Amino acid sequence: MLHFAWYNGIVHFYFLFVVGAIIAPFLMGVIPVEDYKKILSILKHQTVKYFAKCLKIRDKNGNIIAFVPNEHQENIINIVEEWKKQYPDENTRPTLFIIIHKARQIGFSTVVEGIFFHELNFNSNKVAMVVSFDEDSAQNINDMSDRFYQYLPKWIKPMRRPARGKGILFENPVNKQSEFEKNPGLQCKFLIDTARNIYAGSSFTINYLHLSELAKWPDAKSTLTSLMQAVPQTGAIVVIESTANGIEYFHKLWMQAKRGELSYKCIFVGWHMHAEYTKKFENDIEKADFIKTLSEKELKLKKIYNLTYEQLYWRREMMRSPKINGDENIFFQEYPASDDEAFLTSGRPVFDRLKINERIKFLEEKYKDNPPDVGYIEFVDGKYKFIPDEYGTVIIYEHPKKDYPYVFGGDIAEGLINGDWSVTQVCDNTTGIQVAKQRLHIHPDLFALEQIKLAHYYNEALIADEVNNHGMTTITSLQRENYWKQYKREIFDRISKSTQQKFGFDTKDQSRQRIIDRLRAIAREEIDLINDIETLNEMLTFIYNDQGKEEAESDCFDDCVLSLAIMYEARSQQSANPPKPHENIFKGKEVHYSVLQDMTKNTKLKEKFKQKYGINTIKVGGNK
Q: Can you give the residue range of the structural domain that contains 554?
């Protein structure tokens, strides 16, 4: 048997022993050694040929076949080869980062494992690691790597030492120290682990790292952070691939990479980009009948993605299959046509992400030409005024209208610079339209001062702050500053056995559930009321946790969401009527209709106003 090992790119041949007369002519020089060197060089530098000639895979029918990459797999191979050509020196070659968002069964896991196997086959002292989301998927990857090794041609198969767990150790299996020192083998490792081990790979330098189905990892951020510390800055390959599973950590990485904020090469493959996802018609009659039954949605998809009728036929059949059971959201998750589609329909969202995303895109386009005002509120020349400042903490979509009623909803945080935010949401109570938002890191007592300035600016608005945790400090500060126009809740005093009114909204489980239900209905039926993109983005990442409670996705915020929900709850305690001019009963002057009603009902009140002001026109509301 002939064994070859090569180190640092130089191929070394080791003749260990000869077995059988069949290969005797082979060893006696029938095929020159130089030809084998040439073949090995081709296989080393042309990965696609290595795959086809050396690797075997199991196809969907259970057959063992040569690994001939499809177009999407070959694209990954080409990216790696171009990276090597661009940076010939491995010692200075910057680490390659790839992130892949894909539909089901494109074959990316298989090709990445093949690339890593190829790298280990032609190098020494390298470590490849594949981290999958659960034990079953890890076992499948282990079976795949075993199959690669099992079917390798003998003349290129390196020595292997049995591993205790999953994976392959390319080392001399002989226990004798002298034999090992003489020929240690490649000293490469192909390791396989699950994401449940947050310390996976921490004891190695990982040259080739594959993170499979990252969106399904239990603690993706912590585990990924730990693994990345084991990856060198030069010469390494890191591949993250996953289908979508809601707006979570994989989504965050994907969006950052897509925006160019991270040094990943982004690859998205929708179902319609994969050649296998098509179904042929039996005949022209069947095709004609199918075309007649196309729905409006299917016709729209055909136009947007330039689909063939065969692709639409496959989609319809897949929708009917037990894999999907007619649930379009499942299809969007498993077989997305766009990257947004998969994220918006997967996971456990509280709000309708498709509607929210549509609203975000509309507002982004709108604000290109007509951006909202950003600044802060200050008391200047006897009035509360808006001061424009691009670094301000107040964003205004509609400035206050004279005499109109406004409502605040507040979610209060501790004020730590890296912690949660303190947020005030503002709406015009006559319509429910969000007109402003205040968001900053500040201590709860000082936040009250900022709220008061904004409240004066918005016609002495009603303030409804969350009373829980740090909110009581803000509410107490509002009282200390003599701002009494606050939301009141009723509580039962067990000592006095009476119902009392207290300032602030208490977000206990039952009341919290109520306000979120209301906000969910608004997002579904009246999404046009919400004007703040930041708030809408928080709604995208507001999910049901494993216990069924609504909360922000890990590493996301929900301060804007909860303050908006409180704001809509508080509307019932503020006038919802716009000012309407009416004829004054004195001399035909105009007066706010609510004052007119009171004066009409109460003649003493009418005389009181007349004596106090000495005039017939009464001004109510507005800025001080």
A: 363-573
Could you tell me if 102 and 246 lie in one domain? yes
**Site of tokens 């240690």:** 184
> What pLDDT, in 10s, does the model give residues 271-303?
999 999 999 999 999 999 999 999 999 999 999
**Tell me, what's the pLDDT at 508?**
80
Angle CA 129–132–133, to nearest 5 = 150
Report residue 107 as tokens: 């074959």
**Residue 475 in contact with residue 504, Cβ under 8 Å?**
yes
Q: Please tell me the total count of domains within the chain.
A: 4
Contact (CB, 8 A) for 412 and 469: yes
Cβ(434)–Cβ(532) below 8 Å: yes
Statement to judge: residues 229 and 301 lie in one domain: no
By three-state DSSP, how is residue 50 classified?
helix
Distance CA 424, CA 426 (A): 7
Q: Does residue 330 fall inside a structural domain?
A: yes
Q: What is the mean pLDDT of residues 188-192?
A: 93
Say if residue 620's pLDDT is above 50. no
Q: What is the pLDDT of residue 613?
A: 56
Helices (H), strands (E): how many in the chain?
A: 22, 24
- Take residue 336 and report the two structure tokens written for it: 């997305």
- Assign 3-class secondary structure to 288-323: HHHHHCCCHHHHHHHHHHCCCHHHHHHHHHHHHCCC
What does the pLDDT average to over 138-154?
93
Rg (CA), the chain: 34
